[in-house]
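HUMAN: Ready with one sample?

ASSISTANT:
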Amino acid sequence: MTETANPTAAGAKSAGKGLKIERIFSTEGVHPYDELTWERRDVVQTNWKTGETVFEQRGVEFPDFWSVNASTIVTTKYFRGAVGTPERETGLKQLIDRVVGKYVEAGIANGYFDTDADAEVFEHELTWLLAHQYFSFNSPVWFNVGTQSPQQVSACFILSVDDSMDSILNWYKEEGFIFKGGSGAGLNLSRIRSSKELLSSGGTASGPVSFMRGADASAGTIKSGGATRRAAKMVVLDVDHPDIEEFVETKWREEDKIRALRDAGFDMDLGGKDITSVQYQNANNSVRVTDEFMRAVEDGTEFGLRARKTGEVIETVDARTLFRKISEAAWACADPGLQYDDTINDWHTNPETGRITASNPCSEYMSLDNSSCNLASLNLLKFLKDDDTFDAELFTKAVELIITAMDISICFADFPTEPIGETTRDYRQLGIGYANLGALLMAMGLGYDSDGGRAMAATITSLMTGTSYRRSAELAAIVGPYAGYARNAEAHNRVMRKHQAANDTVRPLHVADTEVHKAATKEWAQVVELGKVNGFRNAQASVLAPTGTIGFMMDCDTTGIEPDFSLVKFKKLVGGGSMQIVNQTIPRALKKLGYDEEKIEAIVAYIAEHGHVVDAPGLKTEHYEVFDTAMGERALKPMGHVKMMAACQPFLSGAISKTVNLPETATVEEIEDIYLQSWKLGLKATAVYRDNCKVGQPLADGGGKAKKDAADAEAAEVVEKVVEKVVYAPTRKRLPKARRSLTTSFTVGGAEGYMTSGAHEDGSLGEIFLKLGKQGSTLAGVMDAFSIAVSIGLQYGVPLETYVSKFTNLRFEPAGLTDDPDVRMSQSIMDYIFRRLALDYLSFEERSMLGIYSAEERQRHLETGSYEPIEETGSAAELVEKPTASAPVVEAATVVEEAVHGRHETSDADEDPLAGAPKVEPKVAHTSAELLEQITGHAVDSPLCMTCGTKMRPAGSCYVCEGCGSTSGCS
């Protein structure tokens, strides 16, 4: 696909003048670093589950206003050099200098700057913006630029595969190299003949789905070979492919298999040891639909599936039936999404070179086959002025500078394959975007799902892309248009006029968006005029990416185009520890809406306790919408997400990485409507996710509140029916043939014994076996008989609490000290056994009613005056699945006191005011997702991070970990 490039575009020194760079952000005569206050920090990262230290670097240097989370993630992810060696980077200055230095060097070598002074201003401006968190390049830039590694700057790739075995095997190889480097790729398999067509040899073709199996296995293998996140890939199939139904059903069928295996006891969570036994789990699937198909769905007519070689219709299907099947599959397992082919190609600037057939894994980059895109995102909240209006002028200047730097990077970038390198150098696709839109709108007092919010987002997006293309046209005059421009000039300029026309249809509603819209209108007028004369340096300019890790680098509250995740955040503190804070955008929004300090303080306090604004004291109901979030009590309606995407889509070269989240109760019809409305509103792609539709998404504490309420209601109904129909009679609940058990060795007063306890599937105690004395002795026989009697009683429904209350505190020999740190003194073997069973199988609340506490709880009482647990004690069944370390030994003074006075903690239950009325604290949160679950009682349906084990949160169509910055996507 190599085009004939002019000498300047190929890298020669420009014959004309270069860019004059205006100093806007930095101060003349002062280096950007000298304007900041710097401090040294220790970055120590642990896996919270195991306590293992997974990273440690002390004394790293960052500006004082950078959060602990930002400095931690940048240190662990982006600093180069082996830890503990002189080559290791030790501060943000080194990181920024490494990257910016390479950009300036390449800019000078390729004739971008008019003078050396302009190059220096460019360096200072870029450094200032990065250090102040105004924007960030995508992760590969920080990984690679300025190092000895290949200078890969792109996170997004689109591959190509043809109907030949050589091409298919080459696809496997190219995809493997991209995954190895930590990036992702997408491709369209529609050129491969279907399983309903013949080969030249006369046999039947395998079809694309069969080859997907091999690629999926390859992706899973490369991931398991050392990557810390799953391989990110997108597989697309055209809706008129004869194998489309098989493609639609692939992940749907596998999800049913996952459920069956899970119910049989296999570990099928994401990252579980048995999940590799199912297929197609390493890719996102999308169906490429046409306007013809969507109109057939509306009209209820038939639609033809076409042979790949001849294009003839070989089968007809009912369009509505196929559309329904697509929606049913998405309802069941979140795949496939839809990509709207005609819309995508109607906004394509290079149709003479080839059609756009696929996207990257997150669906924001859509361009030619064998191409790549390097991304950068701006932090929108940085451009909010003190009067709560958006600074369009400053934003424009930042976009000019950033888009220039992004184009320079293509001059020195390396690529994973030569075809990708050729296409990228010839078309120079860029992907400028933004983060923090949700926080910006809230701070301005605008609801995310409101006309005002959408108008503001649309004008900002229009201004960003308009400025980018205007600068691209200016660059074309200096260093030449992209090599493929000449053959696509008419089409490219047509798309620029489409953007301009879309801008004209935006209707601003406030003073703030009116000013931004005026600036955008001015930019598009220049784009159209300059483009006619100069052409353009870049075939594409903008996308809206997930901004996962780089969003943390910029300390953004919200990612990409997303609304705020929740109103209460989890924040790490300098020196260790963390705290729960209310989103700091909220007080600013309340002030903007006219509330005084007293009311603001009361509303913020209410949000801190409840996690939402419903019934907040003094807050007007008409202002609730401003504080709607992605999750929680006031979660946005699905169409609110779709409408925001539709408002911004006409002003993007590419598309938007975003998933439309639906509640678990959503219907197939709702998904059909979202897909249909997305097409009508002009989106390029749509993906949906219904809560709890996937087994392989580990949840905290089971399902959400809705699921629990439904289960409680169902249980109550069953109980009522049973009471009406039968008189109570005891029924024995036998244990399954294979059951979980826990064996405990113990010593009481010098006498040794063993206890084995078996549990039902729900974790409740069902049997015990006690071994004391020699086999055949009287004591052994009595213990066997006692064990059988207690076990039968348990199986007939006698509560364990009853046994514990009857047998604890019984006094007889042997008695005295034990070897169990949780039960240091025992008055008899029976006293010990039932205290141990209580600790293993009863909840904290049940035990505290009986005055039984673990060593850890008693230690906490000594230190804080409270037995309240930080984390709910697990059942014995859970302990069998995941053994834990022994509880800490109680302080020596406590043991001595017990031994001398014959006193132990559990004998004081009646005197302890806390006994019988414990206050149980929820589990410790490690991320905002877990904190939201803790406050609201609703489960957040997200995977656990494979690096540090914390619950991730949504970021576009991907997930991001607040603990370590890992993402599930390609950015």
User: Anything to note?
Assistant: The two ends are 26 Å apart (CA to CA). The longest strand covers residues 53-63.
